[in-house]
Design brief:
Layout (H helix, E strand, L loop, with lengths): L2 H15 L28 E4 L15 E5 L15 E6 L7 E6 L14 E8 L5 E7 L7 E2 L2 E2 L3 H5 L18
Length: 176
């Protein structure tokens, strides 16, 4: 290749590699599907005591609880990134009750006013850093219980939160 052609190579590379999409979307998945292994070692993630919007327990869920999250939203965010996993676990019941919400994205759970992009999970802590998935989906399966209590519709409560369907005080966008 001659020197004249080499002079244009950097410009050709920039133009050829440009996708035309927004830079902020680079590498962001459109959809994230969680598997049991996605929750491995969640005890090592960022965490805090679970506190609900009224500054006391977290309301419906059996407490006291600890909340864990695999990634924090960028400063100034108004929604959690696709791939965010939030886990809550009881700290006073053995075996612990564990449940999760995962930002799946892709319009998941948007039908009928659901928590847009969020998938709900009931998990079993295996005691070795892994979990088993008891149920998952946009709504709890019929007959499922949470701490021996009938499970209502997770969407009914979570969609009322102005913080991308997340109530816990530690996970309010103003904290990041």
């Amino acid at each position: 290749m001659n020197r004249s052609a080499l002079r244009w190579l950097p410009i050709a590379l920039v133009v050829g590699c440009s996708s035309g999409g927004a830079a902020s979307d680079a590498g962001a998945p459109a959809e994230f599907i969680a598997y049991a292994s996605s929750f491995d070692d969640f005890h090592s993630w960022s965490n805090a005591v679970a506190v609900g919007p009224n500054g006391t327990g977290d309301g419906l869920h059996v407490g006291p609880m600890q909340v864990y999250w695999n990634q924090s939203p960028p400063h100034g965010s108004t929604s959690f990134p696709v791939g965010t996993i939030i886990v809550k676990e009881t700290t006073s019941i053995n075996p612990p009750v564990v449940f999760s919400m995962v930002k799946r994205g892709g319009g998941f759970n948007s039908d009928n006013g659901g928590a847009n992009g969020w998938e709900w999970f009931s998990l079993q802590d295996n005691g070795d850093g892994t979990v088993g998935v008891l149920w998952r989906g946009p709504v709890a399966e019929a007959g499922q219980t949470y701490a021996n209590q009938p499970i209502g519709d997770c969407n009914g409560c979570h969609t009322q939160s102005k913080n991308d369907c997340v109530w816990d005080l530690a996970l309010q966008f103003s904290n990041f």
